[in-house]
Amino acid sequence: MQKPNLSFGQMWNLSFGFFGVQIAYALQSANISRIFATLGADPHSLSFFWVLPPLMGMIVQPIVGSMSDKTWCKWGRRKPYLYVGAIVAVIVMALLPNSGSFDMTVKAALAFGAIMLMLLDTSINMAMQPFKMMVGDMVNEEQKTKAYSIQSLLCNAGSLVGYLFPYIFTWVGVQSVAPEGQIPDSVTWSFYIGAIILILCVLYTGAKVKEWNPEEYAAYNGIEKQDDEPKQNLLQLLVSAPKAFWQIGLVQFFCWFAFLYMWTYTTGGIAEQVWGTTDTASQEYQAAGDWTGVLFAVQAIGSILWAMVLPMIKKTKVAYSLSLVLGAVGFISTAYITNQYVLFGSFLLIGCAWAAMLAMPFAMLTNSLSGKAMGSYLGLFNCTICLPQIVASLVGGLILGLVGGDVVDGVQTGQIAMLVVAGVALLLGAVAVFGIKVKRE
Q1: Distance, CA of 306 to CA of 328 (rounded, Å)
Q2: In a 3-state reduction of DSSP, which class is residue 438?
Q3: Percentages of the chain per state (helix, strand, coil), in multiples of 5
Q4: 29 assigned to some structural domain
Q5: 427: in domain
Q6: By the number of CB atoms within 10 A of the CB, which of 3, 37, 102, 317 ranks highest?
Q7: Collapsed DSSP state (helix, strand, coil) of residue 73
Q8: Residue 266 belongs to what domain range?
Q9: Is the pLDDT of residue 224 over 70?
Q10: pLDDT in tens, 308-323
């Protein structure tokens, strides 16, 4: 049975909650290093806190997918996980920015913050996955590209809002400086407002979307036919994976290794490079933290613009490699820029790499698969996003010690050098692209 065509409004409602979820994710990405540095984390150990988000993504996303496949209740199939994830995220977003306000020691505050970060990323992943699954469940093949385009638009819009929130709050007069060891009000209120928007967006999608019952779902998705296919466990699927899976995975390693360092070291790097400070309690450092959100928003704009250009480049590997080279130029150029506005050019170029990373790997991988076990392979492919971030987090302090400057007042200077390392990683990824051979197996 053919899935029915959906109106634009129905497809919009399917993904609208993603706008709120992405605000939460953007706030996490742009502010975690700033929060932990403000709490007193040493730059050498800063990257260790970034182990938690990808680790939780590797664990949570496959579990939510597997469990929701078997869930049927009056609230729906995917929506119960959406609700649980959103509620936990809202609670954690209220607690995380207050990690330094409970009269705890520095170590206790950092430990509390780490636990909150782990819970935040777990809940965001739990709330994020159902949106992708509902589009897959309920949208027919002809409309799927349009539906995911709407989801991508809402995703980028949410990122822009989340990245800019601290800067906007500072601009309207909310304090961006706090006593040593405490998080500024501009960041705290960004998380509060982000949490409110998140739950409202999720409730809107929950109210507007009615998932199919088991009989309708089986009829529309050909479940009986799928059940007749031979089952393989994940290890067996990995052993029989097409070569392109591993070849694209190598490129993914260099790409996500690079972006982990952008998220981790941009605030500290530009605080020293542009504002001339390493003092995390200073107004200049917090201004650099606000500006990091602006730069990440510029990167999102660059990604949207470059995504329009990519289809015009006929050779996929050329488009992919060129995008990564442009991103590398953007990263490396940051080491030579001392003007906060000139950095816009760098982050527009970094957005080119981001646009390719979101689109090219999945397009090339799915073209190499026959269609059998597609979902399982995409779940496994998520590890090529998470594992490089974990590796980068674990070796970040060591690399900073090698490429950074002197230690001043217990703080490692030269964090901007880590963005140069990110640029070199993208150049290696650009070379590895030409080793990809897409052949349907």
Answers
A1: 15
A2: coil
A3: 75, 0, 20
A4: yes
A5: yes
A6: 37
A7: strand
A8: 233-441
A9: no
A10: 888 788 888 999 999 9
Using alpha carbons only, give the angle 363, 58, 42 rounded to the nearest 5 degrees. Answer: 115
Kindly state the tokens that stand for 76.
Answer: 């729906």
User: Considering the chain, what is the average pLDDT of its residues?
Assistant: 84
Please give the structure tokens belonging to residue 386: 């998470």
Number of structural domains, the chain?
2
Residue 181: left if φ>0, alpha if ψ -120 to 50, beta else—which one?
A: left
CATH code of the domain containing 133: 1.20.1250.20
* Tokens read off for 25: 């994710």
* Nearest residue to 270 via CA among 66, 413, 435, 408: 413
pLDDT at 211: 81
70, 144: one domain:
yes
Alpha helices in 274-342 (DSSP H): 283-309, 316-333
Neighbours of 286 (CB within 10 A): 27
Sign, CA dihedral 348-350-354-355, equals positive
Residues 32 and 123 in one domain: yes
Q: Specify whether 406 is located in the same domain as 278.
A: yes
Tokens at residue 182, please?
């405490």
Res 411: pLDDT: 63
CB burial of residue 283 (10 Å; 0-12, 13-18, 19+):
middle
Q: Which of 174, 191, 219 is the C-terminal boundary of a domain?
A: 219
Q: 153 and 195 in one domain?
A: yes
Do strands 411-412 and 407-408 pair parallel, antiparallel, or not at all (unpaired)? antiparallel
Q: Rounded CA gap, 341 and 337, in Å?
A: 9
